[in-house]
Amino acid sequence: MPNPRRIVFGDVHGHFDALTALFEAIAPNERDGVYFVGDLIDRGPESAKVVDFVMENKYHCLLGNHEQMMLDAVGGFNFSPQLLHAWIYSGGKSTLESYEHQIPQSHVDWMRNLPLYLDLGDVWLVHAGVDPRLPIEEQGEAQFCWIRDEFHRYPYPYFANKLIITGHTITFTFANVEPGKLVSGPGWLDIDTGAYHPKSGWLTALELNNQEVYQAHIFTNEVRRLPLEDAVVPLPPQNLHRSRQKGKKRGLLG
Questions:
Q1: Alpha-carbon dihedral of residues 227, 228, 230, 235, nearest 10 degrees?
Q2: Residues near 46 by beta carbon (within 8 Å), at least 6 away in sequence
Q3: pLDDT tens digits, residue range 1-23?
Q4: Do 38 and 127 form a contact (C-beta atoms < 8 A)?
Q5: Where are the domains of the chain?
Q6: Are 196 and 15 a contacting pair, CB within 8 Å?
Q7: Kindly report the CA angle at 19 between 142 and 48, in degrees rounded to 5?
Q8: Given its phi and psi angles, is residue 234 left (phi above 0), alpha (psi -120 to 50 degrees) or beta?
Q9: Where does the Calcineurin-like phosphoesterase domain start and stop, copy by copy (predicted)?
Q10: What's residue 17's pLDDT?
Q11: Nearest residue to 126 (alpha-carbon basis) of 69, 164, 183
């Protein structure tokens, strides 16, 4: 009997049809481990369906910055118009519409209990990255859900024996990276290929055992499978800062 596969999905952002297409292509069984790096919601049209699907199947999922924004806006005890506006502006409008403006308390509670990272032994999953200057126990949502430049520009791996896999930062915002490509740096791999963005449209899943990448395109419905080595662009750390600033100016970063 083959070993259970480990399958990691990038930021889905409410694109249920593309997610379904990837599951049909990968066909995970009950022994396989299925993981999501966060940002199931916002921007795309069917966030409620995506959350339902992940919850009902009891798949592993991390807290992303978009789940955190939703919790800040509607999951707390003290209502803040400023936090609600920030979430709506960042893609929350489509999420509210997908729930018909009635988010079940069970979904809020589920998101409140999402972990910030998962350690799979040789692989360490987190939504955004880590602060390379701090030990893990001194970090929290600000780092694990939001960090970018400090993590990407660091010239050395954070872990000696673990690959950090992230989402959060769309890969084509790095210098000289085409839409749909993954990006790797010292000790990390970014699999957020910008499913919601018109420049890309690719939703990505990585099958770790066989080092294969599965992708579904939300605009053309194309589904493809390719070796990881053909899908990833290794990026020198010295090229990262300039690219991140350009991405920020264009408003492309999630």
A1: 180
A2: 14, 15, 16, 17, 98
A3: 789 999 999 999 999 999 999 99
A4: yes
A5: 6-250
A6: yes
A7: 65
A8: beta
A9: 7-169
A10: 98
A11: 164
